[in-house]
Amino acid sequence: MSPGRFPSSADDGVLIPLVDMVSGSTTSVGNGCPAMIAPDDSADDILYCWDYLHLDDLLHAQTPKSAEVGELIHDEVFFITVHQTYELWFKQILVELDSVMVIMGQGNVRARDLRTVLARLQRINEIQRLMVAQMGVLETLTPLDFLDFRAMLLPASGFQSVQFHLIENKFGLLDRDRLKVEGHDYVATLRPDHAELVTSSEHAPSLFDHVEAWLSLLSFVRVEGFDFMASYQNAAAGMHAASRAKITGLSNVDAVSMDKQLAAFEKSIEKFDVIFDREKWETEVRQGTRRFSYDAFVTALFINLYRDEPALQMPFQILTTLIDVDETLTLWRERHALMAHRMLGRLTGTAGSGYAYLDETAKRYTPFKDLFDVSTYLLPHSAHPRLPRSVLRRLDFQAGYRYVIVRQPPQMARRVTSVEGLDQVGLYPGVDAVSLTRPPGDDVDWRLGSHEYVFSVLGTAPAHEGVRALGEFIENHVAVTYV
Ligand code: HEM
Known about the structure:
Among the domains are: 10-61, no CATH class; 74-211 and 324-365, Methane Monooxygenase Hydroxylase, Chain G, domain 1, CATH 1.20.58.480; 397-482, no CATH class. It contains 19 helices and seven strands. It has helices at residues 16-23, 49-52, 55-58, 65-69, 74-104, 114-138, 143-150, 162-171, 192-203, 207-217, 228-248, 255-270, 278-287, 294-305, 310-344, 355-364, 369-373, 389-394, 465-477; strands at residues 222-223, 226-227, 400-407, 416-419, 431-436, 451-459, 480-482. The strands form three sheets. The chain has a three-stranded antiparallel β-sheet with strand order 3-6-5, covered by helices on one side. Strands 1-2 form a two-stranded antiparallel sheet. Strands 4-7 form a two-stranded antiparallel sheet. β1 and β2 (226-227) form a beta hairpin. α5 runs antiparallel to α6 and α15 packs antiparallel against α16. Mean pLDDT is 79; it is low at 1-31, 398-421, 423-427, 436-455, 458-464 and 479-483. Protoporphyrin IX containing FE (HEM) binds at residues 82-83, 86, 138, 146, 157-159, 161, 164, 336, 340, 343-344, 348-354, 357-358, 361.
């Protein structure tokens, strides 16, 4: 290899030891690759780890500008590798995000799919934590050494990361919340096909939209004559009256500071008004200070309060993980802004903005801000309204297994006459009743685009496996017959 030239093919020599290390012998299946040889495979069909991972492409995709124009600058290769690693993780985040959105976009998310949603969101969160930590690796490049090749990179910029902007839009960042860079739109520096791709992702339903729709459809909040918000308003009023009495009862406080304390207290509890006043909430949504619909927000509050009920544990974890994901991306933004500051000082980046812009995005770009705000309205456990038995039963797998079967819409004229398989009840010890709690009829919301039947399976034995097994039986085998 000539001095200053970066290897561009395996023949250049630098990569040979790596080849030896990975291959070992031609029949090896080790080195972290999945088992790749079936016993009767012919030699041609043997899958080789290097090929499987397309390492010829991947490991030769680092082509520094410095080597093109003269001497290779050692740190430029490192800079490219760090960037590429980020883009690979961005790609994986998009894969996870898209799959979560497919599940969440079903209209009526099946309870059994929530674990997958949670697992994929958690994976996104872990990747983002790694992305934050990776800034430390990048910072082993000193500002002075960066100067040796920085000018060669103009006018390219991290701002042109198409995948990063896709992630932002798919999470639910709104164009109206974006900052302009030097008066320009964020897609202004992108190639036209990339700008088109990113802009079109602004108009597709985002994770935020899917989560909002899912929360709005979960109907725990007003069921069977129980009006949760009315009860919660009473509970909040009781708590606030007790706190007010405590302040006015303070004996060692003069009149002036008492008035001050009372005024501060009244101001703090004014914040509650908006959750008991749908119109006020909707006005704030129109003004852009809130984003979730009123129904979605109230459900999120309910899930946070009653998170220990079995049916709410998974939704609670999903809401918590959405906050985690929003938070770790914010941490990445902050970390990247700090790195840009120490690398560039007060200079601007290649797209014309500096760390101040990056820092500001960290403060503003939080699509799930409403979920963070739920804490404003939490009351201590002792003040939570007691849920009626009928609601508790719906939220408890042990007392009853509520199962939802979604079918494509049947013709409206058809009515259910029998549900095959329900006579199997006797096979499941501990299950003593199965009922179709919402028979399809004119009251069904046809706008959902799918038809929902809710089966209640009541078991006598707590947490009896039979209840769960019957639920799965219904899921897999029940055929609904129509006339
Ligand atoms: C020496 C290293 C780096 C410096 C000094 C730096 C600096 C900057 C600056 C100043 C901006 C604002 C736009 C501009 O004027 O160019 C920016 C944007 C951006 N950079 Fe970096 N960056 C570096 C490395 C990276 C890496 C490794 C990534 C990973 C992909 C990255 C991703 C981004 C993204 C996604 C934006 C757009 C952020 C937004 O608009 O909110 N940067 N960078």
